[in-house]
Automatic annotation (TrEMBL):
Name of the protein in question: FAD-binding protein
Lineage of the organism: Bacteria, Bacillati, Actinomycetota, Actinomycetes, Propionibacteriales
Keyword entries, A-Z: FAD, Flavoprotein, Oxidoreductase
Keyword Phosphoprotein among UniProt keywords: no
Pfam families registered for this protein in UniProt: FAD-oxidase_C, FAD_binding_4
Cofactor(s) recorded in Swiss-Prot or TrEMBL: FAD
FAD-binding PCMH-type domain ranges (all copies): 37-216
InterPro entries reported in the protein's UniProt record: FAD-bd_oxidored_4_C, FAD-bd_PCMH, FAD-bd_PCMH-like_sf, FAD-bd_PCMH_sub2, FAD-linked_Oxase-like_C, FAD-linked_OxidoTrans_Type4, Oxid_FAD_bind_N, Vanillyl_alc_oxidase_C-sub2
UniProt source species: Kribbella sindirgiensis
Sequence similarity: Belongs to the FAD-binding oxidoreductase/transferase type 4 family.
A GO molecular-function descriptor: oxidoreductase activity
Length: 457
């Protein structure tokens, strides 16, 4: 017998928009997070328009079927994972760039547009959409909005929320709300746009976004500096940020990460290197001058060596080490990627503390990160065949978050809570903050239709 939800959605959206093939459903159960459970979905639906999303939300709501909205499922917190009996609402067919306005410097898009697709389209008009998560070739604008994604150039330009002017959202009631505005300024009412950004699919389905653009940046140049210690590298990063320069990228790699990269591919990194800093300036004709100043600052902070790129190809080569992080860590074992962010003044204490946590729990913790934002990705690596090592890795993962909080930071700078960190959320928000979150969720979604069990337990 056909599932009544599937039958209703097929009649409203057409047969090919609704999938109940178990193999396809199985392949859509998970995002990229490890250690997050995923349930068995009831069906997958791919609406093409806001009106179709309304149909889907109404049908699921009336039948009491929870909805998990999915973009590209590159999330790292389990927020896009299926729950048992849910309807997966994929934005894979909502891929239109509806408008690019040079005059207003905005783009209006459907949520399934892939970040890189938008970035390339606006660049053709000499415009720039800065949010650039490393997953930009895969992840969707809707997913970036729902996770408030960051990226490499956030250090200069800000994160996704800084570029979302307005949203169209389908609410649990099936009503459509437009939040925010197209104009650069506007303060009427509560900032519902910012509330929905980062809400991880728990408050509604984003069906359209109006995004602010910037003039395209000029060509970027890169400097790469190696240091004997973690402390020297962090101190140099702090000095670069305090110098008045505005690097368009400032990334850090610690010794365990550099060793993994060197083992993965010979980049000629000497054994005694304790850390590496990568910095970029995208100020065109002034980039060479900026990079030279960054090099001077690094040298003054004890850099062993500083390489300065003189063109785009050399810049690309210098950034190669950063790009290799994921592929270098994967072969070492299972990776549990943390995402703490602290005030920059606390970074040295954070990194020392992480080394102590690694020693205490006897696990390898590699620590690459967006040092300019104080956002590090301590990555606990362990042997998945060793149950004791796995237990210690999870303890270490929690200890890193506690340390980040003690230092005035957050348990997640950009990857979100999902299910991975839901049990730690109260530690950061406190009981009053958590209760307020619950009331906000209830105001938007009284029947707990959207992504139940994510963010809020
Ligand atoms: C290799 C790799 C590198 C990464 N690098 C970064 C990085 O540099 N910075 C960073 O911040 N993240 C990074 N991530 C994490 C991930 O790419 C981001 O969280 C991204 O924003 C998720 O987008 P997505 O389209 O894959 O969304 P999904 O994973 O499908 O969904 C993420 C969340 O958004 C919700 N959602 C999706 N679309 C909508 C919508 N239209 N309306 C309402 N809710 C919606 C989902 O329900 C879920 O809660 C990386 C991931 C990988 C695998």
């Amino acid at each position: 017998m056909t599932d009544p939800l599937v039958a209703r959605l097929r009649s409203a959206l057409g047969d090919d928009a609704v999938v109940d093939d178990p193999d396809v459903l199985d392949s859509h159960r998970n995002d990229h997070a490890k250690f997050c459970t995923a349930g068995a979905p009831r069906a997958l639906v791919r609406p093409s328009s806001t009106a179709e999303v309304v149909e889907v939300v109404r049908a699921a709501g009336e039948l009491g079927v929870p909805i998990v909205t999915q973009g590209a499922r590159t999330g790292l917190s389990g927020a896009a994972n299926a729950i048992d009996g849910c309807l997966l609402l994929s934005t894979a067919r909502m891929t239109q760039i509806l408008e690019i306005s040079v005059e207003d410097q905005v783009a209006v898009v459907q949520p399934g547009v892939v970040n890189a697709q938008l970035s390339r389209a606006v660049l053709e008009q000499d415009l720039f959409y800065p949010p650039d998560p490393s997953s930009w070739e895969m992840s969707t604008v809707g997913g970036n909005i729902a996770t408030n994604a960051g990226g490499l150039c956030c250090v200069k330009y800000g994160v996704t929320s800084d570029f979302v002017r307005g949203l169209e959202v389908v609410l649990a009631s099936g009503e459509v709300v437009r939040t925010g505005r197209r104009s650069a300024k506007g303060v009427a009412g509560y900032d519902l746009t910012r509330l929905i950004v980062g809400s991880e699919g728990t408050l509604g389905v984003v069906t359209e976004a109006t995004l602010a653009l910037r003039p395209a940046p000029e060509a970027a140049l890169t400097a790469a500096a190696t240091f004997r210690s973690i402390e020297d590298g962090i101190a140099a990063a702090a000095a670069v940020m305090a110098s008045g320069l505005r690097p368009s990228l400032l990334e850090f790699l610690d010794q365990p990460t550099l060793r993994a990269i060197q083992d993965h591919r010979d980049m000629g990194l000497p054994e005694d290197v304790g850390s590496m800093l990568l910095a970029q300036s995208d100020r065109g004709t002034r980039a060479a001058e900026d990079v030279a100043r960054i090099a001077e600052i690094c040298t003054a902070h004890g850099a062993i060596e500083v390489a300065e790129a003189s063109d785009a190809e050399e810049s690309r080569m210098l950034l190669e080490a950063r790009r290799l992080v994921n592929s270098a860590l994967e072969p070492l074992g299972t990776t549990l990627i943390d995402d703490v962010a602290v005030p920059r003044s606390q970074l040295i204490t954070l990194l020392r503390g992480i080394a102590e946590i690694g020693a205490k729990y006897d696990v390898l913790i590699c620590c690459p990160g967006h040092v300019g934002d104080g956002n590090m990705h301590p990555t606990v690596v362990f042997d998945p065949a060793d149950a004791a090592a796995e237990a210690r890795a999870l303890e270490a993962f929690g200890a890193v978050m506690q340390l980040g909080l003690r230092l005035g930071g957050t348990i997640t700078g950009e990857h979100g809570i999902g299910t991975l960190k839901a049990r730690w959320l109260e530690t950061e928000l406190g009981p009053v903050g958590l209760e307020l979150h619950r009331r906000i969720k209830a105001a938007f979604d009284p029947g707990n239709l959207f992504n139940p069990g994510k963010v809020l337990l």
